[in-house]
Amino acid sequence: MLQLEARVPERGVDVSLEVAEGETVALLGPNGAGKSTVLAVAAGLLRPAAGQVVLEGAELTGTRQVPPHARRTALLAQDPLLFPHLSAVDNVAFGLRCARVPRRTARQRAQGWLAEVGVADLADRRPAGLSGGQAQRVAVARALAAEPRLLLLDEPMAALDVAVAPALRQVLRRVLEERTALVVTHDVLDALLLADRVVVLEDGRVAEQGPTSEVLARPRSAFAARVAGLNLLPGRWTDGPAAGVRTDTGVVVAGTPSGPALRDGDPAVAVFRPRAVAVYRDTPGGSPRNALPVVVTDLEPHGDQVRVRAGHLAADVTAHAAAELDLVPGTPVIFTMKATEVSVYGR
């Protein structure tokens, strides 16, 4: 089990999180949110100004900070960082040899790990003869061969071709099962397929956390909503005939409350899918409460539709509708949603 508390003022990070034994936790958040800083603290590459790192009951920080090589942690980054002069099998065996495992035993174990990640036939190749996906599999094998108590992954598939990433994702899904791991990713698929739980960081703080499916289905932070492909409007719950979430602009968005009952004035968020949004040039009659005046900031293809972005909000419309409305960046429009399509959650 990992218990981490870290305050790094120069990076604006103040985070507290836990990873249970055998659990994989995904760290999500925008660039600069502090995700890699958290990994660096866990790995011992960065000493926090305050806080502690406890792994399986042993404190790794404090006045006698345990150095990275003695922590029984393994860090897998975007770049495989394989030794160019060593073969794949010797790269994997390197950590074992440093731990004074006999050469023959180390190579046998390394060969087993290469087979585990599906590249046993590449054992004698040097990194220059490997593709990006093959090299990353070797890096995974090297990390696992050290039998770490904690596996740290910093966007391990970010540099891979989109055609290669799915295969490695399946490898990671298999080898991470019942291992204690902390995974930094921007990809919602990584979170869905690899992680038991998600921790969302924003501005160096934990914005929300919980089971992966729950966070992505009912996000409470702007970043999680964006990653999940949802719209999110924060505000406060307003009781009465015009019940709904009153946003900072004063618009009340009606919706269906979920979870614990909300009281007047409670912080809340309204969540709805882009496909639930209708787009108009003028405010339509009959839906004054859920009519949001916005300005189009971007248009992008989204399957057989066009995604209309207006800042942090999005709507999906047909290409015909986009043309008929004469939508271009800078166009003022009205986003509307049926109350039945809007879910409301307390924050």
What oligomeric state is this? single chain
Helicity range of the residues?
10-25%
Number of helices: 9
Q: What is the average per-residue confidence, as pLDDT, rounded to a whole number?
A: 87
Rg calc: 24 Å
Q: Helix- and strand-based class?
A: alpha+beta
- Termini gap: 27 Å
- Largest β sheet strand count, sense and barrel closure: 6 strands, mixed
Judging from the principal axes of the Cα atoms, what is the shape? Answer: elongated
Beta-strand percentage?
25-35%
Low-confidence stretches: none
Q: Order of strands in the sheet with the most strands?
A: 6-7-8-3-9-10
Describe the structure.
The protein has 347 residues and is an alpha+beta fold. The chain is 24% helix and 31% strand. The protein has nine helices and 22 strands. It has helices at 35-43, 88-98, 103-116, 132-145, 165-175, 188-194, 212-217, 222-227, 319-324, and strands at 2-8, 13-19, 24-28, 50-55, 58-59, 73-76, 150-154, 181-184, 197-202, 205-211, 231-238, 244-247, 252-253, 256-257, 267-272, 278-280, 291-295, 298-302, 305-310, 313-318, 332-336, 343-346. Strands 6-7-8-3-9-10 form a six-stranded mixed β-sheet, with helices on both faces. Strands 13-12-11-15-22-14 form a six-stranded mixed β-sheet. Strands 2-1-4-5 form a four-stranded antiparallel β-sheet, covered by helices on one side. α3 (103-116) packs across α4 (132-145) and α4 runs parallel beside α5 (165-175). The radius of gyration is 24 Å and the shape is elongated. The mean pLDDT is 87.
